[in-house]
Amino acid sequence: MSAHASALPVTHIRPGARSMSFTLREIWQARELLYFLVWRDIKVRYKQTVLGIGWSVLQPFLTMVVFTIFFGRLAKVPSDGVPYPVFSLAALVPWTYFATAASSGAASLVGSQHLVAKVYFPRVLVPLAAVLMPVVDLAVSFGMLVALMAWYHVVPTPALVALPFYAVLGVLTAFAVTLWTSALTVRYRDMRYVLPFVIQIWLFVSPVAYPASMVPERWRPLYALNPMATVVEGFRSSLLGTPSPGAMALIALATVAAALAAGVAYFRSVEGSIVDLA
Amino acid sequence: MSDIAISIRGLGKRYTIGAREQYDTLRDRIAAAASRPFRRMAPGGLGASTTIWALRDVTHDIRRGEIVGIIGGNGAGKSTLLKILSRITTPTEGEAEIQGRVGSLLEIGTGFHPDLTGRENIFLNGAILGMRKAEIARKFDEIVDFAEVGEFIDTPVKHYSSGMYVRLGFAVAAQMEPEILIVDEVLAVGDVHFQRKCLGRLDDVARGGRTVLFVSHNMAAVQRLCTSAMLLDRGRLVRIGDVRSTVAAYLSGEARGGFAAAVRTGEPQILSADLEGLDGRPLENPSCSDPIVCRIRFALPRRSPGTRVGIGVLGYDGTTVFTTSNADVGTPCPSGPGEFDACVTIPSDTLLAGDFHLALCLWNAGAILDLQEPALSFSVDAGRSPLYAERATRKGYVHVDCAWSVAPRVDASAAVLT
């Protein structure tokens, strides 16, 4: 055993949350655990269900049907010149991802209590895994969207190259929200009741059922503070060739960056007490 | 470079108990703020929160390669210490420095998902314990071998027996190769055969030069494995030293006379145990010539046929002298539900003079339902026992009635020749 003991990693344990703070390096080292946490949730998610992965298609599809009947046909909401079903589904696919990720993310830390209380790993992996897992549903429902586009003979434009950007922005938005909600839920179980309501409101302040072009021009910068508006409009513009979110994307990017930074800081400040509180 | 693996300096952990921190909702906070002025008027009232130090002022250096047993009664702070060193929770004061990778095993099968198969859970659990995927894949066959789950490896673990579940969990954990291993009371589960296997594995780890912190109520295991021991009592480190004397100090400090369970768990449980004479009166100071009756009261809340109740008699240093159970003499145990009294009589002239401890155990089909070790302690006096009639120094713990004969030497070779 002539291994250089000086090369051994040294762990300092001190009072206060700071001593537990995760670092990017630590997350990188634990990437395999992150992979397994996501993999477990995917494996387990649809066990003992009849429809299985079909649920990830059914939910946005049925919402699309309802939206098409009430907003498209009856309320005659404009749809930027695209058939309303495609118009709404292109928004519902990223939106359903966000809603799923935000709600499962908020419950993730409390739901992992047994794990958190028994073994150390960077706590942030839990909300991170929770927002990555629904990406699988996103991919599957995206397949359905492509099929619907083909049905309506909607051909993507070169704007398609921007799609990955909007997808990543959507994941980051969900992660920023989840950093806050997962940690807050540990302390305040009120979040369980608040969050579904907030997500419901959020759906209507995002251009899912209607185009962002309906929002008056002067309100647009304020409207863009909601990054999901950019994500949804971005999905549409890159797939259906509707107007690009343009400057809204920059505001959204800044909002998400700020929310992420604040979320990381908040999460770090409380992660040390997660075990003691829950 | 130092040969200190873990340096602990004034470590302490305070918990706040009481209504305030229990269930923290916004409404509670508002209510607490509103009632604060009134609470001041009634000091020590219902709303007052109490703080307890689960651990206080613990300072100790653990050298590389040391196998340290951490012992102490319930609430002594053993688990809190392990949780702090495992980075699961943060200390309130003090600090610790750990050199090397830490692997902690506070529970067997942490993160097992009932819907996943044994194979899938091996990878998941391994990753949770900090192993690399490639490492788990390489050791996969060894894990399956050790766990003895064989063809059930592709069955969801929710269909496993509790024994298989525990074996699989330990088999994965046994493959951890950190420089420092932290183990909490994992031997309290599983059957005897499996416990022996686990101890053997821990033995290997210990011989491999790793530093191990080991919490257990099993004094025999602590004595067998550890090179030193720390004794905690109500959060304080009261003794550090060699295993034998520390275990003896712990055992002698335990409650003498009777045993009574602190809480009723609603599970199969040993409720109380008392020593009495043949006449049923409490036995204060037994002597060698007294039969010692141990009356064990236990509860079986559900029907559980085949349950066994047993005692282990331990020497002053924790060495197991002998064990006995109702099954030894074919006495059946009621299947329950209900509360029962088991009486076991240690015959007179069996135990030699000295200090003894009793361990109590309730188990069924190899699974331990309740284990109290040590549950109670007693001293046996030499008295006027015939064992001491000649004042010879008797060694050991028990007297065994052996047959003896002493006669002039018979020359065997001569006998054959004639």
Q: Give the proportion of residues in helices of chain A.
A: 55-70%
Order of helices and strands of chain A: EHHHHHHHHHHHHH
The value of Rg of chain A in angstroms is: 21 Å
Order of helices and strands of chain B: EHHEEHEEHHHEHEHEEHEEEEEEEEH
Number of strands of chain B: 17
Distance between the termini of chain A: 42 Å
Task: Please identify the structural class of chain B as seen in this structure.
Answer: alpha+beta
How much β-strand is present in the residues of chain A? under 5%
Outline the low-pLDDT stretches of chain A.
1-5
Shape verdict of chain B? globular
The average pLDDT score of chain A comes to 89
Low-confidence stretches of chain B: 19-23, 40-47
Distance between the termini of chain B: 77 Å
Q: Helix/strand-derived class of chain A? A: mainly alpha
* Mean of all residue-level pLDDT scores of chain B: 83
Strand order of the largest sheet of chain B: 5-6-7-3-8-9
Helix content of chain B: 25-40%
Shape of chain A: globular
